[in-house]
């Protein structure tokens, strides 16, 4: 007892207060978990392709514990590695998948489909088939509000989202006081491990899934870029160690930040008109060079998960020289955004979630693609060429923005990570379910909301082609891994 007393007495008061808050948050997390995920009770859930790692396996155990029945479909060896038992193995051709899925929905009497990323090739047909069969669809994705959240949204995410787009809706939305989310911490090393294991298994077991086509190369060679990414992370941390300080001092208040996205991101391919990241960079730099004031600087930030695959140094050097922007055009890899954003004059994105983060810091944002937060008076609605000089006059409406953030978290966000579990009692997946984020409020939300397609931005992408009803026919369900 005396030993315990000594340890307690040595703790700073601030540390003890933090521990009390953390314990209180854990209790609230357990309560939210029991109310939120239990809404799946009595439903038959079909899990399709999930994120890298064991998240969907752990989620299936939570769903089962809540009283749901869970089925899973694997499409490649990486899926199988993290869900090796009790799953259906689809080994057919991609063009056979819609008919196969239609057969599953009918034969298994599926109530809800859950998947990760609704724009993956294997998932593009799911929304239409689910609607046709009267099956509810829930889509997981990286968090809209980061770093301590993941997204689960009914019907679709990002450009397919059904979130209201009316500023007045958010101006009138009541913002209740809420507790801080549990902190996830760093997930890079977890994501790296899951990626290496996933691609290794996908390569080794490719003969068992001969017709599967991934959205990236699914070979053993895919592991090596991750090692290259680790090397680049260390290299640029040393090389760019002074950049952060310069942005917060020398460049403070006069630079525009351009956060890039991963080269294969569906946000680029589906929810914008840009054929590539390079084309976005070209357009932004050209517009900046022609229209920005001589005192302004442009900072292009590389996406941390794209280190392994892309490096735009040569493009940066070419554009700097071609437009005469030496000293005004910077290209960086690692920045502490919470420290840098308050010093930015503005932020330009395709539709990155960094745009939402910047708005929450009161920084003007120009969206060049389609984003859930691209709402008049929250983001800049003018043309890119005018943004460089008009940005300081177009800070986000704080009342509408806070209403949007509160609604977004309450209706689409889970506290946690898909790569690293939080220590939440009763949750094998390690996520906190908001009480409002239930099956009824998330997955069955009616389509009476203002659709994003009703708001026409400058860039309009072509919608995914509808399925031919003639090819949607029942398919035999194969349940053995080796056949």
Task: Describe it.
The protein has helices spanning 2-10, 13-36, 55-65, 77-82, 97-107, 126-133, 167-171, 188-204, 223-239, 243-248, 266-269, 277-291, 313-322, 337-340, 354-360, 384-390, 398-412, 439-443; strands spanning 44-47, 69-74, 88-89, 112-116, 136-142, 149-154, 255-259, 297-301, 329-332, 344-349, 365-367, 413-415. By secondary structure, it is of the alpha/beta class. α5 packs parallel to α6 and α12 (277-291) packs across α16 (384-390). The strands form two sheets. The chain has a seven-stranded mixed β-sheet with strand order 3-2-1-4-5-6-12, with helices on both faces. It has a domain at 2-188 and 412-461: Rossmann fold. It starts with a helix and ends in a 40-residue tail after the last helix. The protein has 18 helices and twelve strands.
Quick tags:
alpha/beta; 37% helix; disordered N terminus; Rossmann fold; 483 residues; seven-stranded mixed beta sheet; single chain; globular; disordered C terminus; five-stranded parallel beta sheet
Brief overview, please?
α5 runs parallel beside α6 and α12 crosses α16 (384-390).
Please tell me the overall pLDDT: 83
Any guess at the CATH architecture of the domain at 2-188 and 412-461?
A: 3-Layer(aba) Sandwich
Choose one word for the global shape.
globular
Whole-angstrom Rg: 23 Å
What is the CATH top level name of the domain at 2-188 and 412-461? Alpha Beta
Supply the number of helical segments: 18
Taken in chain order, the helices and strands follow as: HHEHEHEHEHEEHHHHEHHEHEHEHEHHEH
Number of strands: 12
Distance between the termini: 63 Å
The CATH topology assignment of the domain at 2-188 and 412-461 is: Rossmann fold
Q: Structural class of the secondary elements?
A: alpha/beta
Approximately what portion of the residues adopt beta-strand conformation?
A: 5-15%
Main sheet: strand order: 3-2-1-4-5-6-12
């Amino acid at each position: 007892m005396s030993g315990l007393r000594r340890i307690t007495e040595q703790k700073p008061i601030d540390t003890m207060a933090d521990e009390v808050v953390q314990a209180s948050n854990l209790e609230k997390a357990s309560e939210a978990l029991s109310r939120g995920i239990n809404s799946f009770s009595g439903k038959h859930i079909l899990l399709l392709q999930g994120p890298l790692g064991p998240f969907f396996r752990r989620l299936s155990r939570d769903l089962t514990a809540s009283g749901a029945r869970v089925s899973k479909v694997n499409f490649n060896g990486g899926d199988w590695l993290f869900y090796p038992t009790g799953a259906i193995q689809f080994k057919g051709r991609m063009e056979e998948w819609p008919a196969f899925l239609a057969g599953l929905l009918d034969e298994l009497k599926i109530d809800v489909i859950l998947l990760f990323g609704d724009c993956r090739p294997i998932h593009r047909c799911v929304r239409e088939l689910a609607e046709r069969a009267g099956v509810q669809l829930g889509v997981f994705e990286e968090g809209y509000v980061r770093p301590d959240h993941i997204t689960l949204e009914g019907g679709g995410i990002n450009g397919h989202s059904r979130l209201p787009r009316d500023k007045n809706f958010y101006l009138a939305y009541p913002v209740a006081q809420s507790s801080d989310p549990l902190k996830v911490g760093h997930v890079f090393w977890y994501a790296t491990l899951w990626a290496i294991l996933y691609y290794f298994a996908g390569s080794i077991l490719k003969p068992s899934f001969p017709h599967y086509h991934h959205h990236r190369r699914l070979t053993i060679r895919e592991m090596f870029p991750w090692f290259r990414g680790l090397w680049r992370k260390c290299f640029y941390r040393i090389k760019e160690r002074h950049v952060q300080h310069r942005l917060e001092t020398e460049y403070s208040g006069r630079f525009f930040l351009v956060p890039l996205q991963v080269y294969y991101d569906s946000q680029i391919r589906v929810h914008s008109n840009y054929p590539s990241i390079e084309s976005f960079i070209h357009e932004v730099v050209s517009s900046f060079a022609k229209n920005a004031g001589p005192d302004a600087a442009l900072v292009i930030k590389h996406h941390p998960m794209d280190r392994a695959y892309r490096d735009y140094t040569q493009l940066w050097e070419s554009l700097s020289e071609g437009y005469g922007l030496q000293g005004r055009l910077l290209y960086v890899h690692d920045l502490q955004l919470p420290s840098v954003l308050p010093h930015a004059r503005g932020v330009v994105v395709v539709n990155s979630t960094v745009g939402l983060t910047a708005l929450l810091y009161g920084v003007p944002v120009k969206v060049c693609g389609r984003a859930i937060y691209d709402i008049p008076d929250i983001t800049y609605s003018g043309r890119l060429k005018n943004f460089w000089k008009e940005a300081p006059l177009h800070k986000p409406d704080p009342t509408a923005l806070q209403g949007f953030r509160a609604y977004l978290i309450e209706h689409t966000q889970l506290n946690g990570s898909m790569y690293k579990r939080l220590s939440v009692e009763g949750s094998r997946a390690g996520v906190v379910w908001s009480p409002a984020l239930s099956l009824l409020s998330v997955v069955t939300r009616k389509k009476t909301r203002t659709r994003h397609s009703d708001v026409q931005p400058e860039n309009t992408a072509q919608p995914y082609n509808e399925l031919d009803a003639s090819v949607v026919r029942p398919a035999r369900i194969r349940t053995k891994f080796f056949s």
